[in-house]
Amino acid sequence: MSSTTSPRNVAIPYSTKTLKLSSFSIPSKESAKAASQRFVAAHPTYLQTSAIDDLRRREFTRLDKSGVYLDYTGAGLYPESLIREHTDLLLQNVFGNPHSASPSSVLSSKYAHAARLAVLNFFDADPSEYEVVFTTNASTALRIVAESYPYSKGAESKLILPTDAHNSVNGMREFALKAGAKVTYVPMEAPGKQTFKAPEDGDESLYVLTGQSNLSGLKGNLALLAEAKARGYNTLLDAAALAPTTAISLRSLNGSVDAMAISLYKLIGYPTGIGCLVAKKEFLTKLQKPWFSGGSVLVVQAPNMGRLLLDGHERWEDGTVNFLSLIAVPRGLQILHNHLPTLAQRLPLLMHFTLSSLASLKHSNGKPVVDLHSPSGPDEYSPSTHGAVISMSFLKPSGERFLPHDIENAASRANIHVRAGCLCNPGASTTLTGMTEMLNNFDMKRIDANGKQDTPASVTESYASNEDMEWFIRDGGVVRMGFGLASAISDAAAFVEFARTFVDVSEATKDGKTVGAPKLKKIADAEIFREDLPALRKRDSSVFTRLRGMRRRVSQIF
Q: Considering the chain, what is the average pLDDT of its residues?
């Protein structure tokens, strides 16, 4: 998988200059399936991506009976041949713990080495410059950097984070704050308008960029990494959501990426439990590991306190790597690599069809059925600024929003796989839905009455002190759908047809029966609805919290 076998694009998966998209909409009486056929006829480029359909018939036959899968941002889907080949290798060989010279250990080490090379090749990384550290997932890769970065109080170290970031990136701030560093968030900006925003030049400071948002689908401007480097920052790229559909060439990024975090299951669905920190060797020597474990040390004194850490990836891989799962990595990455160029042509077409179709759905009163948060519509979408992800809210004829999880549950009953909620990305979720002020006004009780931090008591007190927190946690957020390796126009059409079932619908339904207003009226006089909540809150905060939760659960059930 060298960079010479296929074009490597730094940030743009498919040139918008060669992508010709015609305006498109669905008449109210046309089925989504018929509309998709008309769309393909108007965009013959789609037929040139038939290799994906061949792959689907060959490797993803289970999709024929498992419904419409649109949660590729949550997890990629594994090709069936990958599982068969991996199983065959396990059945035909004996693999042992690699920390030995036995034949079984040597064999495991051989496959682990092959997996490292496969990762470097997939990301077009110079093996003399970059090291691959295997972790359990992207979150663990991020934590390695977070807990080991040498912030300096005297030099006023800084951590720059994107507002549109996964909580595994947000969590990095805990280590920075503890070390006395200044944490600054970069606000979300319009697609294609991202600029470098950071305090003065960095000294022992870290700049983190989301490669592609898991919620908004917005792609980070990778050119900002070079600017951050020029300003003296070390750089970290969260590529977990970007890498599954966008070719990343670390070589073409000219050394602007000090470290990058990924998860294998996001890329190709299998194996789970394997992530990577792809980092410059020079950058790894700068990190200060706060502890050691088996497999990461050369010599340990006991009972004396001395120890010598190993160098390279071994220093950062605590204990024994998942050597049995690493066997599947090269083949999985090869399958994805072979189809990335075709995906770069197909996914923008699927996005254009879906966005155009959803935007054309209207209630009888002319109001939209779907509020497209990101991208906000087909005109805003470009594959250079957005991944194949759509975040949205479903709207009633009144304009009131359906609760995201009600839509998720309705989709599940229709055998459509989507995801709803804040999706571990509070910054993007609240920005897109206008709830940032609500979130930031919550009084977070990190310390309980006994001075202890993050205890069950402090959590309970936070609930009791913030009237809307339970609602926010349970009912805030968006509905997210996304495309990936095995996606087809039929998947997009199925989701559009599902969305159409909400035309002129005012309540979520279950088993064909409208729920909500009629039964709520019958129980309006029930005891739990007559209690004076403000008065109860003053008398007993714990009872107040439980009662308020009961009210909302009853409302949700009925």
A: 87
117-164 confidence digits (pLDDT tens): 999 999 999 999 999 999 999 999 999 999 999 998 766 899 999 999
- Give residue 199's Cα distance to chain centre: 27
Give the dihedral sign, CA 224/230/232/235: positive
Give the residue from 330, 479, 493, 460 showing the smallest Cα distance to 412. Answer: 479
Q: Say if residue 9's pLDDT is above 60.
A: no
Residue pair 271/331 in contact (Cβ under 8 Å)? The answer is no
Residue 72 has pLDDT above 70, yes or no: yes
For residue 468, the one-letter residue type is D
Answer whether 173's CB lies under 8 Å from 206's CB: no
Closest to 514 measured CA to CA, from 526, 525, 523, 502: 502
Q: To the nearest 10°, the Cα dihedral for 356, 361, 362, 364?
A: 150
Q: pLDDT band at 512, cuts 50/70/90? A: very low
How many Å is the Cα radius of gyration of the chain? 25
List, in order, residues 6 or more apart from 146 with CB less than 8 Å away. Answer: 171, 172, 174, 175, 176
CA angle 188, 193, 194 (to 5 degrees): 55
The whole-number average pLDDT for the span 462-486 is 84
User: For residue 29, what are the contacts with CB-CB under 8 A and spacing of at least 6?
Assistant: none
Classified as helix, coil or strand, 144 is: helix
Task: Report the pLDDT averaged over residues 232-238.
Answer: 96
- Token pair for residue 483? 């495309």
Asked if residue 273 lies in contact with residue 328, where contact means CB atoms within 8 angstroms, the answer is no
Q: Is the pTM of this model over 0.85?
A: yes
Task: For the chain, count helices (H), then strands (E).
Answer: 24, 17
Question: CA torsion sign, 137 to 287 to 219 to 474?
Answer: positive
Q: Rounded to an integer, what distance in angstroms lies between the CA atom of residue 198 and that of residue 165?
A: 16
Q: Kindly tell me if the per-residue pLDDT of 461 is higher than 70.
A: yes
Residue pointed to by tokens 């009600």: 406
Contact 208, 160 (CB under 8 A): yes
Query: Which residue did the predictor score with more confidence, 414 or 542?
Result: 414
Per DSSP, the three-state class of 163 is coil
C-beta of residue 486 within 8 angstroms of C-beta of residue 384: no
